[in-house]
Amino acid sequence: MYRPAMDDAPCRTSGAGTLSRRRLLCQLRDATVGALLLPVVSLVRAEQERTTLKPGVLRIGTYFVNPPFEFISAGARFGFEVELMKEIAQRLGLQPEFVNTRWEVILHQMQQNLYDCIVGGITITPDRQRSLAWSTPYMTTTLSLLVDAAKSPANMTLADLKGATVGVQAATTDYDAAVAMQRAGEIGSVKVYSFARIADAITDLAAGRVNAVMKVYPVAAWFARNTPGVRILAQVPGDPQPLGIGFSKTNGGLVAAVDNALTQMQQDGSYKTIEQHWGLRG
Fold first, then answer.
1. What region, left, alpha or beta, does residue 269 occupy, with left being phi > 0 and alpha being psi -120 to 50 degrees?
2. Which candidate in 72, 152, 250, 261 could, as Cys together with 156 as Cys, close a disulfide (CB 3.0–4.6 Å)?
3. Helices 270-277 and 252-268 meet at what angle, rounded to 10?
4. Would you state the pLDDT for residue 49?
């Protein structure tokens, strides 16, 4: 007659309220197997949930008017986030496809699932978190004020901007910060430019039509390096800018996969290499 081995035997109590040795061993076996299987199940589930609009392609919405994040030179596309997203796509086994759009519509377009994700030096804010999912911040920076070097003495400070006109891009955290400074009496007025016309603000700065231009530090540093006569006056205090990658709220698997790729890049030094290449790290 077949007698079940201890490993095959069903688990039963030996009496009311008493746990038999056999049942205890069964419970330990089941718990061990479950613990071993859990990471495998989680990986499979994450892979199943990581969807893209086109198989094998990561469709990325952005705008190529935002150096050093994205810009066009001699007809080719360059930038820190261009390299960043290419590296992320490669680690996910996907082909990056960049779609050029406008800042004024990109957040709404992402809600409509026109892209798999969006980038563009975008600050993660509570309002934007209500409509989209976001990666962990790949960079936390500051807002900076650019001034004309010839018109601003070396000892000039933020306090000297009372009454000044500050140029900002529309619908940005730069605009929000400038309006708050105006209300606090720290600056005199705000001049708003469409997002794609930031170069006009720099031209107006040199011509004296505005006294300062506000941008996140990497963009401000780019213009300071590449525009004769322009320098960074100061950082706006108490207003950190966490930058991230935006996704649809229904694609948590892709968010997790991108976050994992970002973590790997931080650990293996490839993120630092891209930062250094674009002058974002000393």
1. left
2. 152
3. 80
4. 74
For residue 45, what pLDDT is reported?
A: 44
Average pLDDT over residues 193-213: 97
Query: And the tokens for 6?
Result: 């201890």
**Residue 141's CB: how many other CB atoms inside 10 A?**
20
Residues 6+ apart with CB under 8 A from 200: 193
Give the integer Cα–Cα distance in Å for 197 and 96: 27
**Are β-strands 246-247 and 70-73 bridged in parallel, bridged antiparallel, or unpaired?**
unpaired
* Three-state secondary structure call for residue 124: coil
Give me the residues paired with residue 165 across strands.
189
> Residue 148: which pLDDT band, with cuts at 50, 70 and 90?
very high
Neighbouring-strand partners of residue 246: 118, 134
Parallel, antiparallel, or unpaired for β 246-247 and 133-134?
antiparallel
- DSSP 8-state assignment for residue 93: T
Query: Helix (H, G, I), strand (E, B), or coil: what is residue 96?
Result: strand
d(CA 128, CA 195): 18
- Copy the structure tokens of residue 228: 């004769």
